[in-house]
Write a structure and sequence with these properties.
The protein has helices spanning 7-16, 28-34, 51-65, 98-102, 127-132, 143-146, 149-161, 167-175, 185-197, 202-216, 218-222, 236-247, 250-256, 266-278, 283-286, 300-312, 319-330, 334-341, 345-355, 358-371, 381-404, 412-419, 425-440, 446-455; strands at 22-26, 42-48, 68-70, 78-82, 87-94, 113-115, 121-122, 135-136, 164-165, 288-289, 295-296. By secondary structure, the protein is α+β, with helices and mostly antiparallel strands. The chain has 4 domains: 7-125, Beta Polymerase, domain 2; 135-209, Hydrophobic Seed Protein (Orthogonal Bundle), CATH 1.10.110.30; 217-404, Hypothetical protein af1432 (Orthogonal Bundle); 412-455, no CATH class.
Length: 465
């Protein structure tokens, strides 16, 4: 519970002490305090009958805390006190409507209020009981339809708190999945990416797959029930989830590669897990059968990368993150090529130069992919991929620091523009030639790289070199 030395809460109490208004701490802050955790955010209801008094006291509180006041135009009853380090939300509400306000919230564990002066807890939806039982329960049946972002937030809380949603809440969340087309994509992204960044997030993702992820990302729905060849024991969707599961157990994969010390940022984890989720979605568009009746998915990686761009666009992630995922998906078959055609330090160094630090993510995805394929024709392939992965990591640890300091001399877009090429393996071939020159001679520069490009005849779109 709040302690007397909490300066913000003490200031709030002091400002309101002689007024007829009652400040109440609400929502996640109360939940966190009851869990004996430090609240991340402080939100308040101010109960009373005088809006004018509320405004005046907010001016005094802002001055006391040296904060600026922001009044959202659409919500005149809300005042936000902000600085670079603090953001405090105060909402004025009639005393008789405090319970009504709490009952409009998402989950019972967030629908509690605490009187700052008396420490009394107002709990109209029995949130403390759910908190003690580590349950997630919606406050009301229309909670998800009123704000569909709550659907994804449910699973974020499951991941972060380790609480279990009750059956009715999960059923209502799934029933409301079609409403996910309504809110701003950025709000969905914020919740979804927090799940992806959390190493405990797979159970939530698995539960969300049908129909929540399938609604957000139509390409996921398209791979349901697509059969695979004898190298696989699972259909495309189930295989995808198996691969994704391994990316949430990074220590297992990095230990197999004798690299348990590999560091990963939150963005690295999001990139890897998005790449795993989308790496095979192109198989829905490339499914075919050869003369022996065996399924094939030629060049599915390129279709997968393009479908990722289409599906993720609504969430509006950063250009940097989008490009990283796109390139990992597009190149996720490179390690299979090493299995089939052999590898060398030189080929590994070229890959590191091309993918930089994301080459680590590429090898992790490749290993997770192979380890998740256990069909009758796959005997020995996981071990072979692990061997290649270990060899790659030896080269990475030895040479990556030097290689990644080399400047990127030309981009794929420049190659396409100068040579009149469409996106194709031809672009990669040209970039590989330039990379070989650069790796052989660190003094090789942009002018020399452009000279190589200009030595090729310019092609019409669709032609090859």
């Amino acid at each position: 519970m709040p302690t007397p030395d909490d300066s913000i809460l003490q200031n709030v109490l002091e400002i309101f002490r002689t007024s007829s208004l009652t400040p109440l701490l609400v929502g996640g802050a109360v939940r966190d305090l009851l869990l004996k955790q430090k609240p991340k955010d402080l939100d308040f209801l101010v109960a009373g009958e005088s809006m004018g008094m509320f405004v005046n006291l907010m001016d005094k509180l802002a001055a006391s805390l040296n904060l600026n006041i922001v009044r959202p135009a659409a919500f005149p009853e809300v005042m936000r006190l902000v600085s670079r380090t603090h953001s405090l939300d105060f909402t004025f509400v009639s005393s008789e409507k405090v319970t009504e306000n709490l009952m409009q919230r998402d989950f019972t564990i967030n629908a509690m209020a605490m009187n700052l002066a008396t420490k009394e807890i107002l709990d109209p939806s029995e949130g403390t009981e759910d908190l003690n039982g580590r349950r997630l329960r919606m406050v009301r049946e229309d909670a998800f339809k009123k704000d569909p972002v709550r659907i994804v937030r449910l699973f974020r809380f499951q991941t972060e708190l380790g609480f279990t949603p009750n059956n009715d809440t999960i059923a209502q969340a799934k029933e409301a999945a079609s409403f996910l087309s309504l809110p701003a994509g950025e709000r969905i992204r914020e919740e979804f990416f927090k799940i992806l960044a959390n190493d405990r997030g797979f159970d939530a993702i698995s539960e969300m797959t049908d129909p929540i992820l399938m609604t957000l990302f139509p390409s996921i729905a398209a791979i349901r029930d697509i059969p695979q060849n004898g190298y696989h024991h699972l259909n495309v969707l189930d295989h995808t989830l198996a691969v994704l599961s391994r990316t949430f157990r990074l220590n297992e994969v990095t230990s197999l590669l004798h690299s348990p010390e590999l560091p990963f940022s939150e963005e690295d984890k999001i990139v890897l897990r998005l790449s795993a989720l989308f790496h095979d979605v192109g198989k829905a568009h490339t499914l075919s059968w050869n003369e022996n009746g065996i399924t094939t998915f030629k060049k599915h990686q390129f279709h997968s990368a393009d479908l990722f761009l289409t599906d993720i666009g609504r969430l509006k992630p950063s250009n940097r993150l989008t490009e990283r995922v796109y390139m990992v998906i597009r190149r996720h078959m490179l390690f299979l090529n090493f299995m089939l055609n052999g590898w060398s330090d030189k080929s590994f160094r070229k890959l590191i130069n091309m993918m930089r630090e994301d080459s680590r993510l590429l090898v992790l995805l490749a290993c997770a992919d192979k380890l998740s394929a256990e069909g009758p024709l796959s005997a020995g392939s996981a071990e072979q991929m692990t061997e290649i992965g270990c060899a790659f990591m030896e080269t990475y640890k030895k040479d990556a620091e030097t290689i990644t300091r080399l400047p990127k001399l030309v981009s794929g877009k420049e190659v396409m523009d100068l040579l009149g090429l469409s996106p194709s393996p031809e672009v990669g071939k040209v970039l590989s030639i330039i990379a070989e020159k650069q790796l052989a001679d660190p003094a090789f520069n942009r002018e020399q790289a452009l000279a190589i490009l200009n030595s090729y005849p310019k092609k019409q779109k669709g032609e090859t070199i």
